């Protein structure tokens, strides 16, 4: 039978600890006051909302190596308060690694409007995305991994030849069983073969391979808010236009955001010279803003020999001014509330 310590460890949250995965730990109440985080010894940290990352539970010096993680926890909270579903920036490293999943959309059934897309085209697009998703992403491979992948493909040449012959007998899309001649015709037969081969390897009862399914926004958020939900659940917050380059730069909720001129409502950046010389601000750059778009180019590298924090990530936030729009709304209440109906 397992020992009491093994049973306790398996039931504890610290059982998920892995030094190669950057995780943020916290504790509450009296445990926070005593520095008890579930490790071998109390930690010298006495704050109301403690957040830490642990590099080593027991080092060579018999010490627990940890560092502060309030910045990471606070940043995630701010994003959850103001943002909707982030998107992947086109052409970024994350966009290349995700492949066809980079622009996958969250399908939401709405009671307010009917779908406008053709169901047949949606089914065809879904099948194409499924074919693409089953193929290993060569853009995410290192040079050595790519060479090993090429060697494995060369070993599949006889099986691919049989697959082409079977497809030629089944459908008219395959023009020839000769691989050289067939390569002249633009078809998806090679992708279908690779997708089926990958599915067989993953679904084999004796297989030890896990299908990789990267999170579409680097695990920045797990919520899927529609534009309507984002409008009513994320209230506009005050901000200020602080500069202008190609677009206006607005300081909003602790972020340096981009404000397109078409959504600025005529706001002007701060006149820093007048502010320094006279100590007077015109106030023409103050308004309330909402997040209109959040793009993830480089997510933080949280898995590796030395996981990073949020310092090396690249996330860009676009906002729009809603200072005047909220003042002209005929009904300021939420649509599904009693106050909205009685207005």
From TrEMBL:
Keywords: Ribonucleoprotein, Ribosomal protein. Pfam families: Mit_ribos_Mrp51. InterPro entries: Rbsml_bS1m-like (IPR016712). The keyword Lyase does not apply. It comes from the Eukaryota. GO terms for cellular component: ribosome. The keyword Ribonucleoprotein applies. This is Mitochondrial ribosomal protein subunit-domain-containing protein. It comes from Thelephora terrestris.
